[in-house]
Design brief:
15 helices; 3 domains; transferase; single chain; 12 strands; alpha/beta; Rossmann fold; 4-stranded parallel beta sheet; 310 residues; pyridine nucleotide biosynthesis
């Protein structure tokens, strides 16, 4: 008797239905590098926050299905207000983005009126609207260096702010937010991983603590990591970021070996999107993400200033 893997059949059927609905709705699926493998595999474009922001701004589509977290879908809605932007997992929030509010930022601006405000894209639309310019982990140093002001309020990630401060003479004043996935990685994790894999390069994300960054061979955004491993002559890598990226690395550079720096580096909200939710979202065209125009107009300026930096 031949065994039929019903799970595989269901996944294939879902993929076929998703492809059909995509065509019907003139839709494009964007997925962050941290998404689960089956979602990455169905996506039209995979990338980090900067790549997906650029893609969202220039897509020829009526519907954007954003497989990521809330602030990413908000950014797409701000950049493409004429499009229908869907977030398949309505509860896929970013805990770090919730660590700073627009009200708290206004207080900071009053306290330091001569400082520019740089906000990480991992923030709400309301916080972006109160900021001078946005940044991502891949361009944060370049963004800060582009400013005329000598003082910079940097929200919300203290670790990324500290990393940026290494490469600029400007006074960087970081907020006390953090990514729980990266902040929980410890120097001991690096030491133990090197013992287990002595020939492997250690790559970490700049959202990690300074003492972890100090022990790494290289510090990159997620797409920076992917570019590095594909170009490097080295064959083994210890990956210090959310473990979902390893799926893409294995697809892009299958002849190399990848080890997570920490098995605990899992963003539970990034994992809330699956094929069933992508299908449900395309079928119903919900949950839709919108941003009030009075907020979007101001936030758009901060995002566009970032995108204008090459």
């Amino acid at each position: 008797m031949t065994y039929i893997d019903r799970t595989t059949l269901d996944a294939k059927a879902l993929k076929d239905k998703i492809l059909k609905l995509k065509e019907e709705h003139s839709a494009v699926i964007l997925a962050h590098n941290y998404q689960i493998g089956e979602v990455q595999d169905i996506a039209d474009f995979i990338g980090d926050s900067l790549e997906l922001a650029r893609k969202a701004a220039n897509l020829d589509a009526d519907v954007i299905v954003f497989c990521g977290v809330d602030f990413m879908a908000e950014t797409a809605a701000i950049l493409s207000p004429e499009k229908t932007v869907l977030l398949p997992a309505a509860d896929a929030n970013c805990p770090m983005a919730e660590m700073i509010t627009a009200g708290e930022l206004r207080v900071l601006k009053e306290r330091f009126p001569d400082a520019a405000v740089v906000c990480y894209v991992n923030t709400s639309a309301e916080v972006k609207a109160e900021s001078d310019i946005c940044c991502t982990s891949s361009n944060a140093v370049k963004v800060v260096e582009s400013l005329d002001e000598d003082k910079v309020i940097f929200v919300p990630d203290r670790n990324l702010g500290s990393y940026v401060a290494r490469f600029t003479d400007k006074q960087v004043m970081p907020w006390e937010g953090f990514c729980f996935v990266h902040d929980r990685i410890t120097p001991e994790d690096v030491i133990n991983a090197r013992k287990l894999h002595p020939g492997a390069e250690v790559l970490v994300h700049p959202e990690c603590r300074s003492e972890v960054v100090d022990l790494a061979d290289h510090v990159y955004s997620t797409s920076g990591m992917i570019e590095h491993v594909c170009k490097s002559e080295n064959k083994e890598f210890i990956i210090g970021t959310e473990v979902g990226i390893i799926h893409r690395m294995k697809n892009d550079c299958p002849d190399k070996l990848y080890y997570p720096l920490s098995d605990n580096a899992v963003c539970i909200t990034m994992k809330r999107t699956d094929l069933q939710k992508v299908y449900n979202s395309l079928e119903s065209l919900t949950p839709r993400v919108t941003v009030p125009e009075e907020v979007a107009e101001k936030a758009r300026l901060a995002i566009q200033r970032m995108l204008d930096i090459k």
